[in-house]
Specification:
heterodimer; A: mainly beta; seven-stranded mixed sheet; four-stranded antiparallel sheet; 11 strands; globular; B: mainly beta; six-stranded mixed sheet
Amino acid sequence: KAGVTQTPRYLIKTRGQQVTLSCSPISGHRSVSWYQQTPGQGLQFLFEYFSETQRNKGNFPGRFSGRQFSNSRSEMNVSTLELGDSALYLCASSLGSDRANYGYTFGSGTRLTVV
Amino acid sequence: AQSVAQPEDQVNVAEGNPLTVKCTYSVSGNPYLFWYVQYPNRGLQFLLKYITGDNLVKGSYGFEAEFNKSQTSFHLKKPSALVSDSALYFCAVRVISFNKFYFGSGTKLNVKP
């Protein structure tokens, strides 16, 4: 079966612009989580969506937002981009969260560079 | 609070030798522990997990990990390293109620021929 698909793979934006990243989960998965990976901060949780509802949010400013559609696809938006937003953004999908052994599959990520 | 520590930024090992990548954790409640591997410009690939049961967990590509509750550790091991094992390894603890992972800082494994 198809894995988690993130588009685009690479993106270059200018400071002050906004960007939207997309994540298509594995078919049947209803939970999508987003992570930011940077050399300095490592992997940090952004937020998690389940059945179109945001259930959890990490410690990021309001410039970072997301949503999930009825087909479970998720988008992440970053407004007023800063140089420090340059990172690899990873999404992961899962059937849900109430079972410890639910798989959690990551996409290949979107590499965002802010110049 | 949940946290994961990987005390080594880098581990160097010769091909054919055993390898260990260390991980310690701090969780309230039952720990659900995972290891992931990341190759350059790629996402995270699942290696293995501990949910319950046997303390020795076997995973993909010949890796295994030992859950030690008294030492709150979950070290990743492989009996014989391959050059192709060179990558970035992350230990993580999963908080079930929030479907959220806390990741360690990562350990870069270098396997030399």
